[in-house]
Amino acid sequence: MIVHAVVVGSGIAGLTVALHAVERGCTVTLVTKDVLDHANTRFAQGGIAGVMFADDRADDHVRDTLTAGAGLCDPEAVQVLVDEGPDRIRELIALGVDFDTDADGAFVKGLEAAHSYPRILHAGGDATGTEIEHALVERLRASRVEVIEHAFLVDLIADAGRVTGVDLIVGETPEHAGTRRTVEADAVVLATGGVGELYAHTTNPPVATGDGIAAALRAGAAVCELEFVQFHPTIIAVGDAFLVSEAVRGEGATLIDDEDRQFVFDTHPDGELAPRDVVARAIARRAREQGAPVRLDSTVLHSTDAGERAAYLARRFPTIDAAVRERGLDWAKDPIPVTPAAHYLMGGISTDLHGRTSLPGLYAVGEAARTGVHGANRLASNSLLEGAVFGARAGDVISADADATVWPAGDLPRGAAPANPHDLREPTQFAAQKYEGSAKACGFASFSRDALQQLMWTHAGLERDAAGLETAAATIASWLAAPRHPVSERDHEDENLLRVAAHLVAAARDRTISVGAHHRIDAGPETGPSATPVAEGVPA
């Protein structure tokens, strides 16, 4: 029997699944919401982490990942990530990814926050994601994989408890309504990315609307740890959101306030290279205190001569340099204003170590999946590695799983949560009446995407408390209770965002302590790296 797999999503995880599955005899249809190479992967600046140097140790990469995850990583998943990561990186090299090398031909080492060793590889300076995406897409186009572009996932199709295909809207444009299409499959892989569009400020592209997670929830798949949303600390606070890679701070750039003080050391002994959640909250807090954005100071890098420094920044970070200068800023001469933004979802659809979900026939990989490697706070540059490692693992087992009489994932004992916490199925009319007054009082009476994004940013963002989360839950419940009839792709995206928001807020309400990226200002002392005391002798 020839197994047919449908892969939804064209980032590093989805492309890797498709290539591995087709190599093992599957027929593969890859469905992508936009064009093939417009996935979130291409926006990844920071690089890919891996033990690729003789003086680095796998045990150290494991330790760094577990520490950043604040004790909530799955150690077995982390071990898989670190052990198999180098082979996946070598696979990317074989496909044509040209990682940066020095004059002697050795890989250039990059350091990012919470890593104890400079194990980050970059390609094209700060264009790592683009280089990886390009290489994988070129290989895919030369393969037997069928590609359907401009195809939106409406829902999963299931029969007798097994996922058997996907329901799509294909070819929608502003001028054309698109057509519905059903694609049957022996296996469906969700590689649909994260939920950045839930927030008013995000590094994610507009396609990140949680479509795969919402479809999995409607089908009854288990999800886990949706409350763990990572906020990237440094987005240019001028013009459209644009991420300034952590690699810039890894090179030695500092964060300063209006008094030119490196204020992050007040919070953590690692200062600018503390875990991302720590740095993001420190930035937001200091900006609030001084009434203006904090600044990223790159004038301390490379040379005391501004001209030489400008040439270095343009060479080392060409994408960021162009974005900075497009906004009328000169980061070779002056510190630039930065602010946090929603960046990466650590939780998602619960999977085993091969991407299998709680539903037979359904897999999840990449940011849409909760593999267990990130815990409460993703270690920098582990996301591309996760997509490559677990994408390959899923692609390698699809064919064999189709012949299995028992779904190998079992009941996912590795921390999976119910698909519908707090009974988040369609609210009753009573619920709508109950919550309507609360929603109006908070200024969010009518649903719009902008209103949802502002609600989530305010009450389920960098800092959270019981009252704010209750406001968010009540407002979302009232919106869910109102009659809506999605027709267009955007309508369905709004439905997906609402559903995921409801589950995210419910999970955040349930976790009453602060841990990692989930920061409850009404809780007791934090756990994990956020709680690390300032070391004696560290400058304030």
Structure characterization notes:
The protein is globular. 55% of the residues are buried. The protein is of the alpha/beta class. It has helices at residues 12-23, 58-68, 75-94, 128-141, 211-219, 246-250, 276-290, 306-316, 318-326, 383-402, 429-441, 449-459, 466-481, 489-510; strands spanning 4-8, 27-31, 48-49, 120-121, 146-148, 151-159, 162-170, 179-184, 187-190, 223-224, 229-236, 254-256, 294-297, 336-345, 348-350, 362-364, 369-370. The strands form five sheets. A five-stranded parallel β-sheet has the order 5-2-1-9-16, with helices on one face. A four-stranded antiparallel β-sheet has the order 11-14-13-12, covered by helices on one side. A hairpin with an 8-residue loop joins strand 7 and strand 8 (179-184). 35% of the residues lie in helices and 15% in strands. The protein has three domains: 4-227 and 346-402, FAD/NAD(P)-binding domain (3-Layer(bba) Sandwich); 237-342, Flavocytochrome C3, Chain A, domain 1; 429-510, Up-down Bundle (Methane Monooxygenase Hydroxylase, Chain G, domain 1), CATH 1.20.58. Residues 415-433 and 529-540 have low confidence and may be disordered. Helix 1 runs parallel beside helix 4 (128-141) and helix 2 (58-68) packs across helix 3.
